[in-house]
Amino acid sequence: GRNGWKPSRLWPVAPPTPVERRLWYRGDESVYGWTGTVFVDGAADKYHWYSGLDIAGYGIAQLVLDHGTYGLAWGLYGTVPPGPQTAPRSEHYVVFVVLYHAIPPIEIVTDHQGIIDGITNGPAWCTSWERAQADIWRDIWRLIDELGGIGPEAVSFSKQKAHAKAVDCESHETRQRRIGNNWADWLAVEGKKLQCSSAYNAA
Question: How far is the C-alpha of 20 from the C-alpha of 160, rounded, in Å?
């Protein structure tokens, strides 16, 4: 690119879609709602010279253990609705999507520390005017309350390291969490791509 600058995604570029889009990679509407262990992730591309071209998406994955191997049971990806298109926004919005269709008990596994910090600090902290995602947090906490609150029999959250690699002698739990996060990450990138593909199709 000019002066050594390179775009973060291929040209041509297009603004994000004016409506939210969701697609099943594996599964369909009959899968709703999510229960058990669910992996979530967000992704975004930022254009420093024009924020109107920023795009963000999310991914949701649930695994199945088949003959000792973890594979994708259900996968959903989608776009972040009109508004700020940032990675933190996508990481928060995907939690809202899962909770909206959740059946407790549910464990949401995320690689975003901001989600863990919010759950640890509570609703007042999350919904303060200082928080960039306060509007989404209000909906998240409302849904958590409707599902029975924070706890192992209702809604729980845990952190997984992003882009973890396989290691020798890893436990079943470690393998499950690594594979689940990797699937959610891949689906989030596909969700981000929906922003551009929908804009091209509408043109």
Answer: 27
CA 158/CA 171 separation, integer angstroms: 17
The amino acid that residue 194 corresponds to is: L
What's residue 75's pLDDT? Answer: 95
Question: What's the CA gap between 113 and 109, in Å, rounded?
Answer: 11
Please answer whether residues 185 and 41 qualify as being in contact, where contact means their C-beta atoms are separated by less than 8 angstroms. yes
Contact 59, 185 (CB under 8 A): yes
Token pair listed for 98: 């899962």
Q: For the chain, give the DSSP string.
A: -GGG---SSPSS--PPPSS--EEEEE--GGG-SEEEEEEEEEEEE--TT-GGG-EEEEEEEEEEEETTEEEEEEEEEEEPPSS---HHHHHHHHHHHHHHTEEEEEEEEES-HHHHHHHHH-HHHHTSTT-TTHHHHHHHHHHHHHTT-BSTTSEEEEE--TTPPP-TT--HHHHHHHHHHHHHHHHHHHHHHHHHHHHHHH-
Decide if pLDDT at 118 tops 90: yes
User: What is the number of residues in the chain?
Assistant: 203
Does the pLDDT of residue 112 top 90, yes or no?
Answer: yes
Tens digit of pLDDT for each residue in 136-190? 999 999 999 999 999 999 999 999 998 888 887 888 888 899 999 999 999 999 9
Integer Cα distance of 74 and 83 in angstroms? 28
pLDDT of the residue at 110: 98
